[in-house]
Design brief:
Number of helices: 16
Distance between the termini: 71 Å
Radius of gyration: 23 Å
Number of strands: 0
Low-confidence stretches: 416-432
Structural class: mainly alpha
Length: 432
């Protein structure tokens, strides 16, 4: 039944994805973040739904009559240069076959990221995209939060099997990045029951992230909590939410969780941490030796034997920063960090110029909460190898579009007023 349900939704919406490509993006985002097909047990679990939807959406973009204009902001330019540089580094990769396979996956993700500004052209569509992402990942947040409460935090929350967010560290990061999006929706929601529901979902989602028992999630939650409060419009309500979440964690999580979290302080005694540090040094040494880095999937045993301080201690890199550094060199890392910096500055500009205007406040809320999601990614990403995670790039795109759409609305507003005045003037002239 689950297989038929998922297939029915996908193929039922597919014609609309062709005629209205933004619906295709919604459907693709649902499949990418919720992975509903991974919850089925039959044919749907292996069917390439995302690929089918992506192709249909691309065809819709090409043939739909809607005007399509790429907003070539400075961030879009840097992202384009970063992708081109990744292609260059792949030509010089240590492991050519592995690198080209990974590049193909990254390009597929980035194609859909680039489609986003082409089809999300107004506030309503952008708001809809945020809802899709929040509901898709919020499903696991609410479910995982309830699971953590019922199990007393004794078992780890994990993502759907076979997905990008299957591991406890990955699902924790995705959930934490989703909480600020829920807060944006709550700030702009007038229905009381839905406002309250989003508040409960935020607390449960935070609890689910902590229930993953990911140490990186704890670091990210602490960093996000401060920024979340500072960026929030209603600081009193935000403080209540934070206190409630902390109280639930303190009441539910077992001693084993505290013991695991305490190992953050003793990295020198932690075998896993030592392995990561060894991989970080490997990335640094490769980047110093090769301007193009080692290419995708370079963290393999033969490379550790040449570049690692401890050649036999082969470990995954588990850091977005050193993953980019090792695979694409200092230039690649510079472009990647520049993209983040420019997007952050864009978010700050939106907040500054929109927070005091009731008509633009939605953009300020979205940019602020997008920045909180970025903080979560930067903090947890220091211990997690998700440099190509599509949710992060979608967050960047959401912040960029908040500015683009806000400026479009501001530009269009005076024209409407002029037209009204002219019509009134014409009517008065007729009366005379």
């Amino acid at each position: 039944m689950r297989d038929l349900f998922v297939a029915g939704i996908v193929f039922g919406i597919l014609p609309f994805a062709f005629s209205r490509p933004y619906i295709g993006l919604y459907l693709y985002s649902w499949l990418s973040y919720m992975n509903p097909h991974r919850l089925a047990w039959g044919f749907a679990s292996t069917m390439p739904f995302a690929y089918i939807v992506a192709v249909t959406t691309l065809l819709g973009v090409l043939f739909s009559k809607e005007p399509k204009r790429m907003p070539w902001t400075r961030e879009m330019t840097v992202l384009t240069l970063l992708i081109i540089w990744m292609v260059v580094t792949t030509f010089f990769a240590f492991f050519s076959n592995l690198a080209w396979d990974q590049l193909e996956k990254v390009i597929k993700i980035q194609i859909m990221i680039f489609i986003t500004p082409l089809v999300i052209t107004n506030r309503e569509r952008l708001h809809g995209l945020v809802w899709i992402i929040a509901l898709s990942l919020g499903f696991y947040g609410v479910k995982g939060g309830i699971f953590t409460i019922l199990q007393g935090g004794a078992h780890r929350v994990r993502g759907p099997e076979g997905s990008f967010i299957e591991g406890n560290n990955e699902i924790a990061l995705a959930l934490l990045m989703t909480v600020p999006l829920m807060r944006y929706l709550q700030l702009n929601e007038k229905r009381k029951w839905l406002h309250l529901g989003l508040g409960v979902a935020m607390i449960l989602t935070t609890l689910a992230a902590i229930g993953s028992q990911s140490r990186g999630a704890l670091v990210a939650a602490l960093a996000m909590g401060t920024i979340f409060w500072l960026k929030s419009r209603n600081k009193f309500f935000s403080a209540i939410m934070i206190v409630a979440a902390v109280g639930l964690v303190a009441a539910i999580m077992p001693q084993e969780w505290y013991d695991r979290m305490s190992t953050i302080k003793s990295a020198e005694q932690d075998t896993s941490a030592q392995g990561r540090i060894n991989a970080w040094w490997t990335a640094w040494n490769v980047a110093k030796d090769r301007p193009t880095g080692g290419g995708f999937e370079m963290f393999q045993s033969p490379i550790f034997k040449i570049y690692a301080p401890e050649p036999e201690n082969v470990h995954d890199v588990h850091s977005v920063y050193f993953e980019i550094l090792g695979e694409h060199g200092f230039f690649g890392l510079g472009l990647w960090l520049l993209l983040a910096l420019l997007t952050w500055l864009t978010g700050s500009w939106v907040i500054r110029n929109a927070k005091r205007d009731p008509e633009k406040r939605w953009a300020a809320d979205l940019a602020a909460m997008g920045q909180v999601s970025m903080i979560g990614y930067f903090a947890a990403g220091a211990f997690l190898g998700l440099a190509y995670f599509d949710l992060y790039y979608h967050i960047l795109m959401i912040i960029i579009l908040a500015k683009v759409i806000m400026l479009q609305e501001a530009k269009a507003a005076p024209r409407v007023e002029v037209e009204v005045v002219e019509k009134r003037g014409g009517a008065n002239g007729m009366r005379r």
